[in-house]
Amino acid sequence: MPQYRAPIRDFEFLLNEFLDVSQYKDLKGFDTIDQSLISSLIAEGGKFCQEVLFPLNQSGDDEGVKFDKGKVSVPKGFKEAYRSYVEAGWPSFTCDPEYGGQGLPEVINMPITEMICSANLSFGITPGLTHGAYNAIYKHASDDLKKKYLPQMVSGNWSGVMCLTEPQCGTDLGLIRTKAIPDGKNAYKISGSKIFISSGEQDITDNIIHLVLARLPDAPAGVKGISLFLVPKILVKDDGSLAKANNVKCGSIEHKMGIHGSPTCVMNYDEATGFLVGEVNKGLQAMFTMMNEARFYVGIQGLGLSEVSYQNAAIYAKDRLQGRALKGHKYPDKPADPLVVHPDVRRMLLTMRGFNEGARALACYTALQIDITKRHPDEKARQQADDFVQLITPIIKAYFTDAGFESTNLGMQIYGGHGYIKEWGMEQYTRDARIAQLYEGANGIQALDLVGRKLPKKTGKYLRSFFHPASKFIEKHKDNEKMAEFNKELYKALGVAQQASLWIAANGLGNPDEAAAGSVEYLRLMALVVMGYMWAQMAEVCIQKLDNNSSDMLFYQAKLDTAKFFMKKMLPYVYGLLASIVGGSKPVMAMKEEAF
Amino acid sequence: MPQYRAPIRDFEFLLNEFLDVSQYKDLKGFDTIDQSLISSLIAEGGKFCQEVLFPLNQSGDDEGVKFDKGKVSVPKGFKEAYRSYVEAGWPSFTCDPEYGGQGLPEVINMPITEMICSANLSFGITPGLTHGAYNAIYKHASDDLKKKYLPQMVSGNWSGVMCLTEPQCGTDLGLIRTKAIPDGKNAYKISGSKIFISSGEQDITDNIIHLVLARLPDAPAGVKGISLFLVPKILVKDDGSLAKANNVKCGSIEHKMGIHGSPTCVMNYDEATGFLVGEVNKGLQAMFTMMNEARFYVGIQGLGLSEVSYQNAAIYAKDRLQGRALKGHKYPDKPADPLVVHPDVRRMLLTMRGFNEGARALACYTALQIDITKRHPDEKARQQADDFVQLITPIIKAYFTDAGFESTNLGMQIYGGHGYIKEWGMEQYTRDARIAQLYEGANGIQALDLVGRKLPKKTGKYLRSFFHPASKFIEKHKDNEKMAEFNKELYKALGVAQQASLWIAANGLGNPDEAAAGSVEYLRLMALVVMGYMWAQMAEVCIQKLDNNSSDMLFYQAKLDTAKFFMKKMLPYVYGLLASIVGGSKPVMAMKEEAF
User: Which among A322, A447, A593 has the least Cβ separation from residue B344?
Assistant: First the structure.
C-alpha cells in the first residue's frame, strides 16, 4: 500500500526560514501572518490530505468515474471528501473577503495545493478549476454577476469549469465555432460542443458554472472574435436560489490513461442561457489573465506527484534487500543490503529530490511574487514582481510537469518489476502526471510563450528580473569559501543561460524558426539555472544553520547534500542543451513535409 | 484508429544497401541469401504484422487477459493469430534445421521481431520467450532433452518460459529459494513460487516448457548454488506425446500498467517433475548465455513501439490543422496550417525518427555481428564480433528501451490532449513501452554491466571493438567535404566518449562507486555516440546514392536530413552527460540513509 506524509518540515523551512514570509508586513492581508499561523495552516491542510484524500487515491483510480445517460458519478468517497473539504473552508482560502473568502496569501496556498496534488490529483481538479473560474469572474465580470455567483463558488457549494477546446481546435482558439446569439434581454443563447471539459459534469456540487468561449454572430474571424460567457448548469434566480436546469448536457466522458477519478466531458450547449463576462470579443484576454495562475498550479501537479512517488520510492529503497554495496556488505547480518546502498538507486532518489525540493522552493518564491503583484502598496514593486511571474510561469508549467513526469518514472524504476504492477501504486503517479504536460497549453506552447513573448518583452526586462538578482547573489558570495562549490557551478550555468538567451534573441529576431526550434531546450536550460539559483540560496541558509549548531542538523545536512547533488549532477545538463540550441533551425526545418 | 505500416523500405535499405548482407557468403547458411529473398521475407512478415497482429493490439489492451481458477485466457483473436503465426512457420525462423528450424540469420529475424513489437507487443512476448527458452535448452541441455522438447518448441506448438524471479529476489538471484530434490530416477522434484512469469500460463499452446532456477538441497549459498531445470506444464512421454499434467499451477495474474494482452503469472511448483539443464549449480551461467540475446530483443521492443508511435504522430501532424507557420501562412486556403509546419512538432518527430532509424541500423548491424559469432568459419572473426556484441548488448537493452519510451511520449505529446485518450491509441504505446525498461534486467543493471564488466574487459578490448572502426571511419573521410558535417560532429562526440571512458576506468578502478554513480549517464553517452557512428555511415551511403541520381531520391534525402538532425540536435547531449559523469560519486553517496 502506498503511503503519503505531508512534507510539513520542508514547507516550514521554505516559508519561515528561506523566504521568511512573516516579514512582509506591508503586503495587504499579511499583517496577521506569523510563523505559527503558517505552520498550523499547513499542518491542518497536510492532515486533511493524508487522512481524507490520499486513502481515496488508489480506489478512485481503480473505480473511475461513471457515465449514465448524461449523469456523471465520481468514485466512492469523493463526494463525502469534497463535503469535508468545503466544511473546513479550504475553497475560500485565497478568495476576496468581500465574497466570503479568507484573503490568505498564495504563498501559503501553494503548499496546500501541492499536498492535494500529491494525495489525490483527480480530486483536486474540481476545486482547482473552480478557483480558476473564480479568478476570471472576479477580474472580468460585472458586479451583478460577481454578487450572484462568486459567494457560492468561494464557499465551494458550486464549482466552476473552463470550456475552451472544441473537436477542431485545441491550441488554436481562433478556430472556435460555438455561437452566442443575443436574446435581447441582457443574455445570450449559447450553442455548440466543447470537448476535454474537466469536471464539466459531476455529482458533488449543487451547481456548475461553465465559462464558455463563443462567437457572436457579427464577430470578426479568428481570436479577435471570441467572447467569454458564464453559463450555469442550473439557472439562478435573482435571490440566488436555483431555478430550472439550463440546456447544458454532458454527451459522454473520455477513457483516459490516468486521472481516472476526474471526469473529462464532452459538453453540449443547445441554446443554453449565458451571460457575457468582460467585453465583447475580448474573451481570450479574459481567459488568459486567469490562465497564468492556472498554469502555475498545473506545474504544481507535476511537483505533487513527484513528491508522493519519491516518498514511496525512498521507503522501498530502504526496505527492499537486494544485492550488496559495491565496496562490501553494509548489513552483513541481513541476507542482502537495502537498495539504497546502490549508487544508481541513490542517483534516482536524489534526482527526484533535487527536483522536488528545488521546484518547491521556486514555487513558494513565485507564489510570494504573485502575492506582491496583488498586494504590494508600491506600483514599482508590483511591476517588478510581475516581470518575474510572467517570465517564470511557462517555465514552471512546462518544466515542473516534464521533470515531474520523469521523476515519477524514476520512482517506478526503483521498484523494478513491482513498479509496473497497479497494486504498488507507483504506476498511477506516472499515468496521472502525464496529463499535466498536455493540458492548460501543451508544453511546447509554453516554450513558444517563453521565447516568443517573454524573452523579447521590453528588451529583456522579464529576463533581467531573474538574471539581475542571480548575478548579485553570485557577486555577494564571491569570496565566501563555504559557498564556493555552489557559487562556482551557478556562475558557470548562468553564463550558459545568458549565452543561450543571446543566441535565441539574436537569431530569432531575423528568423522566428531559430527561436522556436530550440525553444523546448531553452526552457529546460533556463529552468535548471533558475533551480540552481534556488538551491544556492537554500544552501546559504543551511550553511548558516549548521554553523550555528541549530537543532535538526539531519534536515539541514540533507538539504545541503541535495544541493550539492543538484549542482554537480543535474545542473551540468545545461551544456548539452546549449549545444543543441545552437544547432539551429536548419536541421529541424529541412525535411520535406511529405517525407514525414 | 491507429495505423501501422511495416517499414519495409527502411529494412531493405539497411540489409541490402547499408550492410549488403548477401555479400557474407562465407557465413554458414548465408549462401542462399540474396536481396530478393531478404525483401520477400520481410514483406511477408510485414504483411502478417499489419494484417493479423496489429488489428488485435488495441482490442487486446482493452479486453486484457482473464484468470479463472488457475486457467488463463488471452484476449479475443490472439489464439487464432498465434495459429496463423505457427502455420506460417515464423517460430522456426532462426532455429537449427536439426530440430525443424529454417536456419535463417538473426539479421533477417531482427526486422520480423521489430515489426511484431510494433504491431502487438503483448502477442509477441510468448513467441519471444519461447525462442529464449529454445536457446537455453539448445546450448545447455542433454541431447535427450533436446530431441524430446525442441522440435515442438521450434514448430511453435509448445511455448517456453523463463522462471527466475521470486517475491524476495529480482535482480539478486542469489536469494532464490525454490528447491529441487533428486527423485532418484534421473529427475527432480521442484517446489517453490515464482512471480512475474510472462506467459507462465496461457491457452494458446498445447504445452508450456518452464525453465526454472532452483537450488539442490546441498547447494552452496548464493548464486553459486543455483541450477536450471526444465519443468513441463504437461509431462511428455518418451514417444513425445503428452502424458498427465505436472504439478505446475498458476496462482494469479498481475494487474499492470500495460501489456494487458500478456499474462504475468504467479507460478507455483509443488513437487513438480523437472529435468536438469546443464550442470548442477551452473544454472545462472546457462540462463545468462540466453539472457544476452533476450536483452537484445527487449531493446527491439523499445524501437518497435517508438516506430508505431512515430508513424501515427506523423500522420496526425500532417493532418491536424492548428495554428500558422511562424513565417506566414503555408496553406492560406485552409483554416489553419497542419501541425507539421511548427518547428517544435518537427523537433519531436525528428527526435523520434533520429532514434528509430539510428537504432534500427544499430540493431541490424548488431544482429549481423551475432550471426558472425555463430556462423563465421574463422575463430578470430567470431571473437571480434563477440567483443562488439558483448559491449553493445547492455547499451541496446537500456538505451533502446529508455529512448523508446521517451519517444512514445513525444508521439503522445504531438496529439495534444488526444494523446491521453485511449481511443487514439497513442497512450497504449507509452504504457506498453514502460515495461521494457524494467524486465530482463532493469536498466540500471545494464549500466552496471557496461561499466563493471564490459568496459574493463581485457583492458578495454570490448570498447576498442567500437572505438577502432569508428576512428578509422573518421580518418577515412577526413578530407571528404560532403561528409564534413557528419564527420566533424562524430569526431567531437567520439572524443567525449573516450574522455568519459577514461574517467570511468581511471576513477572506477580505485572506487567502484565512481563508475556506478555515473553509469547510466555513461551508457546513454556511449549509445548516442554509437548511434552517431551509424548515422554517419548511413549518410555516406545516401550521399553516394544522391550523387548517382538513384531513384527514390525522397528516401535518401529524408535519411540525410534525419542524419543532420541527429548530429546537430541529438548528439550534442553528450556534453551534458560528460559534465554530469565527472561530477563523481561524492554527491551521490554523501546523503545518510536515514535522511532519504
Answer: A447
